[in-house]
Amino acid sequence: MKSLVYIDHFKGEVQPASWEALGLAKSLGTAIAVVFGKDAEAVAKTALEYGADEVLLADDPALEDYRGETYASTLSALASSSTPDLILFPTTTRTRELAGMSAVDLNSGVLVDITGLESEGDPSTALRVIATRPIYEGKVLEKTVCNAKPQFVTIRARNFPKAAYEAGRAGTITKVEAKTDALTKVEGYSATEAAVNLGDASVIVSGGRGVSNNPSLTPPNGMDEKQAELWRAQQGFALVTDLAKLLGGAVGASRAAVDAGYITYAHQVGQTGKVVTPDLYIACGISGAIQHLVGMRNAKLIVAINKDGDAPVFKQARYGVVGDLFQILPALTEAMRKKLGK
């Protein structure tokens, strides 16, 4: 089976799930990496080091910033000329749009956010794949196929092994033409905050409404009730952040905490936020509404800390601690600091 693998990157920083997609393609047959951008040859060389059989590189100033119309036109032209059986993407906001637009160009369909993939028959000759993806809030796994060709598939991060890395591995990088005609252009942009990469995090420590429930904290004078609540939440999330940083992880949050203004939406885990699959997920002061559980139930190990022993989150947790998170988190952080020698 011949696969194109889109390597999603921003200014040369590659989404790690791109290497998972490359590893998946190699397990099915020939894996050809696709890299778009300006001065993106370093990314192309890295793709070879991750085992790509070949790299198709569209390096053009018009591709410096992502624009769906230019990227989709370029990808569609590549797919038409190289006739792959399968085109793989990591699941990101950009790739969902790109896969959809290119699939329309080529009269095909897209299988989105899949967690399993197998080929029919002999992998070297199979022209169709069977994809597994979660539906109904993750309660059911659906097997589905795309009968058109090429088949477009986006994979959920941390569900497939990365391709093996071999420093200095060389190979063929083929320059291809970029389709630069577009009705739009990027005038500029600015980041609202540092990127929160929950999808690729191996450890996530999340906080919920409970991070603000520390009555022993006395807020500064002059604060009204709402200001005092937000101030207490900041102190609670500081404890969550301390543990996350110590473990080399990311900070997550429930929708309740985000809606209350304790933390920004970029940190939200759940049905209306990020669906994550970390090795370790620590839920602090999160009761466990179904919308949140959908987003983290596939974590390899779940630890819950909540003063309510009947909280639904404990049904998902491997380990549960019933108690005051404001006492437990500092003690846990200190114990981990000693264990890790930090």
Trace the largest sheet across and list its strands: 7-11-6-1-4-5-12
Mean pLDDT: 94
- Level-2 CATH architecture of the largest domain: 3-Layer(aba) Sandwich
CA-to-CA gap between the ends?
A: 48 Å
Show unreliable segments. none
Shape: elongated
Largest sheet: 7 strands, parallel
**Class of the largest domain, according to the CATH hierarchy?**
Alpha Beta
CATH homologous superfamily title of the largest domain: HUPs
**Total strand segments:** 17
Strand content: 15-25%
* Structural class assignment: alpha/beta
Q: Predict the CATH topology of the largest domain.
A: Rossmann fold
Computed CA radius of gyration, to the nearest angstrom: 22 Å
Query: What is the domain total for the residues?
Result: 2
Could you characterize what this model shows?
With 342 residues, this protein is an alpha/beta fold. It folds into 2 domains: 2-175, HUPs (Rossmann fold); 203-340, TPP-binding domain (Rossmann fold). It is built from 8 helices and 17 strands. The protein has helices at 17-28, 41-49, 68-82, 93-105, 225-246, 255-259, 290-296, 325-340, and strands spanning 2-6, 9-10, 13-14, 30-37, 54-59, 86-90, 110-114, 116-119, 129-135, 140-145, 151-155, 172-175, 203-207, 250-253, 280-284, 301-306, 319-322. The strands form 4 sheets. A 7-stranded parallel sheet has the order 7-11-6-1-4-5-12, with helices on both faces. A hairpin with a 4-residue loop joins strand 9 and strand 10. Helix 3 packs across helix 4 (93-105) and helix 5 runs parallel beside helix 8 (325-340). The chain is elongated. The model has no long low-confidence stretch (mean pLDDT 94).
